[in-house]
C-alpha cells in the first residue's frame, strides 16, 4: 500500500496504490485537502497504462532511409545520442542542441533538465510545454504581485468566500473533485460566477453565467472595473495603502461603459451591471482565471485586467478573497520554478540576473560565466528549427508537441527538419513516432518524485511498483548522457538527492524550497512554498501584509483591448475555440491508451442555429478550416455554445493543426483559445 498522488492534473489528488500480486495495482482514493477522498475517472483508471501492450520497454532507433525501427541496448542508444550531441556542438556550437521539457515532469526532473541543458550541453535553448499552459497568468502575477504562485491560498479557502468568479475554467470536467469546494460555497449561500463562451458543466452549476465572444474577456474585465468605479465601490483605502498605479488603470476603465462592452463581448449591459452589483455587494470575492482567459495573444493583458479588478475591490491578501490561476498540468506550478523555462534558473530566478547566476552556478560547481543566457520560448524554439542558426537536435522529455503545439502541422514539419530528434516517453506518442531515437522511461507509479500542485503545495509521489525490465527513469537518462558528454557537476539519479540539491539552488529565490524535505512532505502530507528553512512552517497564504515587490505594494498595470489576433472576415466567419473533455488529459498520449476511458476522437461542437445555416446534422461530419489547416469530424449540435463559435477538443491529432500561433508579446503564450475558421459540410461522394 503506497500513498501517492494522481499522475495527471494540477489538483494532484491524493490516492493510495494497492498491490495485487506482483504487478497489478489498484487505485484507492484517500483523504487529501484538495480532493477529500474523491477522484475523477482519469484518476480511478490511472494504473491502466501499466498493462498496456503499447508500453515501450527498449530503446529504439529509426532508419531515416526506410523508416524502420531497430532495437538498441541502453549503452548503444546513450552512446549514439551523446556522440551525435557532441558532434553537433562541435560543428555548430552549443545552441545547436535544444531541450524541450514538460509541465508533467516531477520537480526533480524539471530541475535536472534545466541543469543538463545549461551545464552538460551549454545551450540556452531549453523551454517546455508549460509555456503553452499558464505562462500568461505567471507573467501577469509577476508583474502585479512580484510573484507567481497559481493560488496564493489553499483551494479549500474558496468555500469561505461569498463569490467565486471563474474566468475560462471548466473545472467540473478538468478537475472534478475541485467542484466540491464550490458546492460547499453554494450550500453556505455563496455564489459562483462562470465566464465562458460555452455553457459547460461548470457553468450549469453557476449562479451567474456570462457567455462572451471568445477572446473578449479583457473587455469584460474593463467593463466591470468601470462599473465598480462608477458605483463608488473601489476600496480606496486598500488602493492607497497596498497598491500603486491605480490612476492610469482608472483612466483606461473610464472608457469602458457597459454598452461598449456589450458591443464587443456580446454580454448584455444589464448582465454586466448585475454582475458588478454582485461583486460590489460582497467582501470576500475570489477571481480565478484558467486557460480560457490566458491562452490568447493578449493573455497577459487579459489576466492583468482581472487582477486590476481584484485589486480595485481590495481582494488580494484578504482572507478568503483574492486572485488565483487554476494551473492545468500536473506540475504546471513546479515545472515553471526550477529552470525549464528559457529565461529562468531554479528558485524562479531570472537567468539574466548576475546574483542569480552566481548562486546557481555555485550550487552546480561551475563558473557563472559558463552558464548560457536567455533562450527562446517554446514555440519560437520549435519554429527556429531548420533556420540557419536554429537547433539541429531536440531532446524531448514529457511532451507531445505534434499534438499539443499550435499550428501543429508546421511544428511536425520543423521536427522532421532536425538532424537528431530524441524522445523519452512511455509509449510511441505522435512525437516519438517522428524521432530518430526513442528512450523508454518510467511512469509515475514506478518512481518517486515531488510535484507542486496548483496551490503551491509540494507533494510526494512515491514509487509503488518496480518498472518493467528495460525501462529507465528520466533522471537516469539525463545522468547517463551528462556523464557521456563529460559534463562538470554531479548527476544523481536518486530523486531525494536531486530534491535536496534543488532546495539549495532555490534557496533565497522567489520559489524557495530550502526547508522542504521528503520526510517533511510525508509527515505533513505536503508543504507550501516558500519554505526557506527546516523550522519554517511553509506558506499556505500569501500577501496578507505585503506583496513581494520592491515597495511591498501590488501594482496596477494598465492594459488595452486589441481583440483576437485573427478577427472574423468574409471567408473565416466563425470563431474556433479548443479545450478539454472529462475523460482525456492533455495530448491524450496516456489517457487515449487506457481501455476504461472513452476515446471518442475529436468532434466539432456547434450551435443549432449555425447547424441550420450550414445544413449540418448532429453526428454527421463537418469540416473546420483555418488559415493553417482543416479537420473533418462529427458534429455535435448543442445549444450550449455561442452561435458564432465552434469548439474542438485538443486531445487528438487535429485541433491544433487549426490553432493560431500568434504569441503574447510578454509571456509568448500562443493564442490557442480563439482563431477564425470556416465551417462547411463535406460533399457526399
Ligand atoms: Fe484529481 Fe486531476 Fe487526477 Fe482527476 S486528473 S483524479 S482531478 S488529479
From TrEMBL:
Entry keyword set: 4Fe-4S, Iron, Iron-sulfur, Metal-binding
Residues annotated as signal peptide: none
UniProt GO cellular component terms: membrane
GO biological process: respiratory electron transport chain
Keyword Transferase included in the entry's annotation: no
Domain of life: Bacteria
Pfam families: Molybdop_Fe4S4 (PF04879), Molybdopterin (PF00384), Molydop_binding (PF01568)
Keyword Ligase listed: no
4Fe-4S Mo/W bis-MGD-type domain ranges (all copies): 1-54
Protein name per UniProt: Assimilatory nitrate reductase catalytic subunit
